[in-house]
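Quick one: co-fold with inosinic acid.
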Amino acid sequence: MNLKTLLTFDDVLLLPQYSDIKSRSEVTLSSSMSEGVELRVPIIASPMDTVCGVAMSTKIADFGGLGIVHRYNSIDEQAAIVSKVSEAGTKLVGAAIGVTGDYLQRARELVSAGASILCLDVAHGDHLLTHLALYNIKDKYGHLVHLMAGNVATYAGALALAQLGVNSIRVGIGGGSICSTRIQTGHGMPTLASIIDCTEIKQKFPDVKIIADGGIKNSGDIVKALAAGADVVMVGSLIAGTTEAPGTVIHKGGETFKSYRGMASKDAQMDWRGKVSSLEGVATVVPYKGAVLEVLQGLENGIRSGLSYSGAKNLDELRKNAQFVRQTQSGLSESNTHIMWRY
Ligand code: IMP
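Sure, here it is.
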């Protein structure tokens, strides 16, 4: 066997380059997803029940990103969330659907409640059932909404979705912070390598957008994902634990937390379908972080600085200028803050 070595975020760095950018405000981070779906900041909130409901969708869209309302509830409940977000005047409202059962009825209700983006949200997007569902959804709603689908990890998986007419593809299998897919099933692909592979479909489908999804830990990882070819990133853990994430604040030992869980965790599956089939996620708590706008602002500042280090005024220039190098384990230790004194 001649195995390829595939890299992910912590394996690489971007070389700093000559820059004539005098202020981070000269940098634009805008990303056009399709006609009418323009993001000021290339960040999308994951369709998870501890990440994206009414408050998250509204605030992240106000900020210039996008939220995808999760689908782990009844059609009426999800449609009510979507309608509240679009009543609040939000133009870009994303909503997730599955690929079996009542997904067509769900899609119909979500579109009439105001969803402008439908996301076919499954663990294995390169699958017959996803392809069939996509065919049906494209036929009925393709002219009305932006179609997002995934997740896939490989060029072949992304190509199949592009051929079926999606506008954007969620790329990343097994990299999520709460994900145990690689441990349970032995399958997956390092996420940065997946982005590089899937971005190749743009040779044939230049308008299809790539969403880097799973395992993004900080703004540095966002910059690396965008430099590797992603048009936008999707984040769960980075914005979980904020005021706008669904769920209450948990007080324990003088500290505050909020719940964050994989949708294939035991807790989540028991709550939304009353049984556990394949266990591919974990449930945990994360520190309570306060207002999501502050978290998003911090990420935006980091991304702007990142573009400036690559001498790039926008995401196209970042992709053109980016020079990746590999780092060793000692390079990574050096990259992480490593001051010894604590008090
Ligand atoms: P994070 O940003 O690293 O926390 O990853 C969030 C992403 O993990 C989501 O956008 C999904 O693609 C993925 N995900 C959500 N729940 C699960 C799960 O239970 N198992 C595996 N992946 C999951």
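If it helps, The longest helix spans residues 292-309.
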